[in-house]
Structures are given as C-alpha cells and as structure tokens.
Amino acid sequence: MKIYEKWRELNIDPKDINFKKIKLIKQISFPHCGNDVIECECEINNTSIINAFIKIERSTRASFETEVNHLKILIDNNYYKKIPKVIEDGNIEDKKYIVLEKINGSRLSDIFLEINDQELKNNYLVKYGKELATIHNIPGKLFLEAKQRSINNYPSKEKYKKFDATISKYIDYLIENKPEINYNTFIHGDFHYGNILWENENISGVLDWEYSGKGFKEQDIAWACILRSTQRFMDNISDIKYFLKGYNSIGSFDKEKLKWCLINGYCHFYIMNKEEKIYRKKIRNLLLEINKWNFL
Ligand SMILES: Nc1ncnc2c1ncn2[C@@H]1O[C@H](COP(=O)(O)OP(=O)(O)O)[C@@H](O)[C@H]1O
Ligand SMILES: [Mg+2]
To answer: What pLDDT is attached to residue 296?
Structure first.
C-alpha cells in the first residue's frame, strides 16, 4: 500500500487525542482526502501492534455519526463485509474522530498506472460496477436517509449561463427533464475510486460511508462514473460501459435517470474546475457522447 507524505497541516493532531482503546505509536501515512486521515501504528489492548486509520472531522460537511451507525448496521446484520472495523470513536474539542482497522489494498488510480493491458482494466471496471450493485441490493429499511449534496440538483441557470455558453444547453436539458427521484435504495453515497481498495484484482474494502443511507440509486452510479480532474480512467464512454456491464449483471437502473445524473454531475464539475482547460475539454467530449448514447 502506498505511503502518502504529509501534504498539509492537520487541524487536530492525533497526539492530542485521549484514546480509549489504543495507544498511538507512530504516524505513518497521510492519504489525500477531505478530512484529516492518518495511518498510524498503534498498540491495542496493551498487547498487539496494529495499523489503524484515524479519521478526524475536518470537512464542514462531515457526517461521522452516520458513518459509524451505518457501519454497525452493515456488520450486525451481516449485510456487507468489505468494511473497516470501528475500533473506537469519540470527540476532541468540537470535532469527532473515528479509529478504523486498516484494510489492505490500493486505489484503482494507483493500480492502473502499472497496467497497460486494456482487457485487464476492463475486468477491473466490471467488478467495480458489480460491487456497487451488490451494495444497492442491501435492504434499505434499517438505514437513515442518505445525506444529500447540493450538487445533486441542477446548477442554477441564472448564476452560470453568463460564464459558459457550452454548458448552458445542458442546463436547459437538466431543467426540462428533471426526473422523479426515488430515495428507496441503500446507497454508498461516495462510491468513487478514492474510497475503494483493491487487492489481488478484487475489491478488498469500501471506505467512507458518511453519505450512505436510503437514496437515489442512479445518482450513486453517476457519482462513480463521473471523471474527476486528476483521474485517468472513466475519461471515455467505454470505461463507463464496462462499469455498467458489471452493475447490470446483478442490478438494474433507469437509463433516462442515469443520463440525467451523469449530465448533471458533468455540468457541476465543469463549472467548479474553471481553470482546468484539459479537464474541461474531456468533460465537453463526455457530455457530447453521453447525450447521444442510448445506454445499450
Ligand atoms: N480502514 C482503512 N483502511 C485502509 N485505508 C483507509 C482506511 N480508512 C481510510 N483509509 C484511507 O484514507 C483515505 C481517506 O479516508 P476516508 O474515510 O475516505 O475519508 P474522507 O471522508 O476524508 O474522504 C481513504 O481514501 C483511504 O485511502
Ligand atoms: Mg474518502
């Protein structure tokens, strides 16, 4: 597993936390993410040494309570196993923290840097999509409603049309075709490559369940397929098709709703990444392709 150097100052240093079940030995790695997350070597039960991830609330949108509660429901009901064990959770100042047992594995973005064989990449993408359908097949009734992001709705036309004519016709489409939204599927809520760990060509762990709960399944699928600015896959329709092939092997979705969610996501990411010309060009191409694709 890759070691990430410290890349910014932590808001709260794990050294300042009074842990109940672990003793901190060493801080090892600082993965890139929204909250302050640190891989640490710890002593547990005054005996064994383990590696754990300490996740401390940083993002103002964090929802650690949901993450802890939903991880518990998943384990207690035997719904899903590829999740980290919560060792403890608590508060430091006005922030929450969680200590999670480490799951071994690497992100697809790192794995794909080492692979040239397209067929092998496609196999990964099929498994990636199938895993999301596995999660969507978990019964939803025990879970709270998933937290919504404001960008799940279409961008406000008044605010954005003056910036960019390219995007304006897609925003028209979004406004005119907003689908009926059903919040009746258990969703992960943040199923993008940074939250999925792989080992020996299989998914070993799915992390970051803050946005999980009863939600809109096509939105969750789109979130996984929308290209992020530094991402080197899902930048073409073929990758998305392999993902959906895996999804369709054990699940189903509404094509028009997925199309709407994809176009909506692309528009928001386009608007948010004003300075990134190359990324924006890729998004424009994806929008063109998605617009004419019939999802067959
Ligand atoms: N239990 C774990 N095992 C292995 N890696 C983890 C674990 N928890 C977190 N990570 C690593 O830390 C990163 C950030 O954790 P995550 O829960 O996704 O926080 P954020 O909400 O800030 O994105 C993950 O993408 C992963 O690389
Ligand atoms: Mg994350």
So the answer is: 63
